[in-house]
Design goal:
Elements (H helix, E strand, L loop, with lengths): L13 H14 L5 E2 L11 H11 L14 H15 L9 E4 L2 H12 L5 E6 L4 H8 L3 E6 L15 H6 E7 L11 H13 L3 E5 L25 E6 H4 L8 E5 L1 H14 L5 H12 L4 H23 L11 E2 L9 H12 L1 E2 L1 E2 L11 E4 L4 H17 L3
Parallel strand pairs: 1-10, 3-4, 3-5, 5-6, 6-7
Antiparallel strand pairs: 2-8, 7-8, 9-12, 11-12
Bound molecules: pyridoxal-5'-phosphate (PLP).
Pyridoxal-5'-phosphate (PLP) binds next to helix 4.
Length: about 400
């Protein structure tokens, strides 16, 4: 068997590999606590489950679901943008439902990037921004996200010769993995920059509804004129606890939406109808439970912060998202620290380098796990730090 040259440089997906090691450790009898992965542990509310049940019972709902999502789903997504962000969207030309946002993100390079084009990606950043580019033989240019810049990229530092070849700029706020948020005026600068350099901005915003301490995350589409240059990705995975359901959206630029939709029509067959109906219920139903859910995450965030402080690991207090981004002890690498914590204490965190070279020196901790288990993980972490004399 021959394998395609384009995957020669594609490393194994980090979490797939980690999963294998954890399965081995569990088989050997270790109780591993996974705070590495950003999967919400809580279910969506009953009214969403009931809608799924109602819809799944309809005999006609088991056929191919159609490429663009049912009109009511696109309308619900547009209405959500209207009520949540004050952004008006045309459900027929500015909204495309996705089978989870990762699906759309992975198809972006096929739709917008030619071989040899440059894609500007945040580093550290969600790995799929980079890997999709590798698959179409494009180049990525990492934009460092540094603490001294509040984890915002320095757009002006990108060299002109890179910009001349650049087709696309990925941004992601609230940010995974750093936990940083971006003010609207950064989004304004980014939109100006994209216009100046003829770039499409893909803004990935799945954590916009996971916020703390009263913070309200903006959409990049709130910037005037953003729709000309921005395609924003969003997802019910994190906002509505529906990660396993696979439903998300790309919204904004009508031109970009059309191109992405064209690619998708050739590569998939749409979202299972009952999931579309349940997503409509989730987006249009009572949203008050989100505040209660966020309060649970916030309590977990504070448990982790307190433990990190006790353990002598410095971390900022995130206003949004599912993650804390502590520094590892001096003299250790991210991978070394994560590996020792897993093997010696049964706590799995993600080494920062899984998100790019500028993730070195940090690990990512997720709050998407039962509060008791997070407490237990933090007890083990503080013990580990004591015993290891770190
Ligand atoms: C920044 C970011 N974007 C996109 C995704 C993908 O989400 P989904 O495919 O579940 O919508 C994730 C999931 O962890 C993420 O962290």
């Amino acid at each position: 068997m021959r394998q395609a040259n384009r995957i020669a440089n594609l490393p194994p997906y980090f979490f797939a590999q980690l999963g294998k090691r954890i399965a081995q450790l569990k088989q050997e009898g270790m109780d591993v606590i996974r705070i590495d992965i950003g999967s919400p542990d809580l279910p969506p509310p009953d009214f969403v489950l009931q809608e799924l049940n109602r819809s799944v019972a309809a005999p006609s709902h088991h056929t191919y679901p159609g490429y663009y999502g049912i009109p009511a789903l696109r309308r619900a997504m547009a209405d959500y943008y209207g009520s949540r962000f004050g952004v008006e969207l045309d459900p027929d030309t500015e909204v495309i439902p996705l089978i989870g946002s990762k699906e759309g993100i992975a198809h972006v390079p096929t739709a917008f990037v030619n071989s040899g084009d440059v894609v500007l990606v945040p580093d550290p950043g969600y790995p799929t921004y980079r890997m999709g580019v590798t698959l179409v033989e494009g180049e990525t240019y990492p934009m460092p996200l540094l603490a001294e810049n509040d984890y915002l990229p320095d757009l002006e530092a990108i060299p002109q010769d890179v910009l001349r070849q650049a087709a696309l700029l990925w941004l992601n706020y609230p940010n995974n993995p750093t936990g940083a948020v971006a003010p609207l005026n950064f989004f304004e600068r980014a939109v100006d920059f994209a216009r100046q350099h003829n770039l499409l901005i893909c803004h990935d915003a799945p954590y916009a509804d996971v916020t703390y301490d009263g913070y309200v995350a903006p959409s990049m589409l709130q910037v005037e004129g953003a729709k000309e240059v921005v395609l924003e990705f969003n997802s019910l995975s994190k906002s509505h606890n529906m990660a396993g359901w696979r439903v998300g959206m790309a919204v904004g630029s009508a031109r970009a939406t059309k191109v992405l939709a064209l690619v998708k029509t050739h590569l998939d067959s749409g979202i299972f109808r009952p999931i579309q109906d349940a997503a409509i219920a989730a987006l249009t139903g009572d949203q008050s439970w989100l505040a209660e859910r966020n309060a649970i995450y916030q309590e977990r965030r504070d448990i982790v912060l307190t433990a990190l402080q006790q353990a002598g690991l410095r971390a900022r207090k995130p206003k949004a998202g599912l993650y804390l981004w502590p520094q590892v002890p001096a003299g250790m690498t991210s991978a070394g620290f994560a590996s020792r914590l897993l093997e010696e204490a049964g706590v799995s965190v993600t080494p920062g380098t899984a998100f790019g070279q500028h993730g070195e020196g940090h690990v990512r901790i997720s709050v998407g796990l039962a509060t008791d288990r997070i407490r237990q993980a933090m007890d083990r972490l503080t013990d580990f730090m004591d015993k290891a004399n770190l």
